[in-house]
Prior knowledge:
The protein is an alpha/beta fold and 248 residues long. It has one domain: Rossmann fold (3-Layer(aba) Sandwich), CATH 3.40.50.2020. The protein contains nine helices and seven strands, in the order H-H-H-E-E-H-H-E-H-H-E-H-E-E-H-E. The chain is globular and about 45 Å long. The two termini are 20 Å apart. Residues 244-248 have low confidence and may be disordered.
Amino acid sequence: MSLLNRLAPLQSLFGQAGRGLLDALYPLECVGCGATGKVICDRCAAGLPVLLPPFCEICSVPGDFARCPACAANGRCFDGIRAPFQYGGVIRQAILALKYGGIKAAAPQLGTLLGDYLNDNPLPCDLVAAVPMHPRRRRERGYNQAELLARQVSRRCGLSYDGGLLVRTRPVNPQAGANSAAARVANVTDSVALADGQDVAGKRIILVDDVATTGSTLQTCADALKAAGAESVWGLTLAVTGARPSAE
Ligand SMILES: [Zn+2]
Ligand SMILES: [Zn+2]
């Protein structure tokens, strides 16, 4: 039984306090092999599913085309999405641990992976921000994993970070529940707005999220930022999935 499965009942019993206690009591285990110390040990890190060409020049969805059907058909609001990995294997397990397993301690290592990727593959940037989470969902989870990743990226790359740029205007169902691309788009439409008092005119923004599936969440955020005059909006995620929504 994985660490995640063993801890899940304790987490639901004790909520956030229990989570903090568990972080202190249990050292991190590698999600790939169970070795103690890191969420991804050095051996498993060497085998991560690096995203290699061919992939869409805009949204990075893997496939033998210059632009995927979605990017070829509609104008995308974002300038592009970049990611170091394909969604699968150990990186998928690590993202699930951070996102659904309450393993907040996975964020520094995953954010560092993302920051190192950005240092090697720079994007135009005045400001790093995270895809926002509705306050209710944030209370339930105890943190916004995209925010933890974005903070670490900004530290690692020496870039400015703004934690209050965007707000959710209504809670969205987890993308996991939307089983078609159309449902996913409907699910996030109009759910993000620029926070009061924010001025992004002329700014080049990098938006961080854990994973890009259809790109519809990043599209919604970029739409709000571009409408407010942002010069460019790039999505930066740990992983991209194929063009079709996966089971999670
Ligand atoms: Zn390992
Ligand atoms: Zn594309």
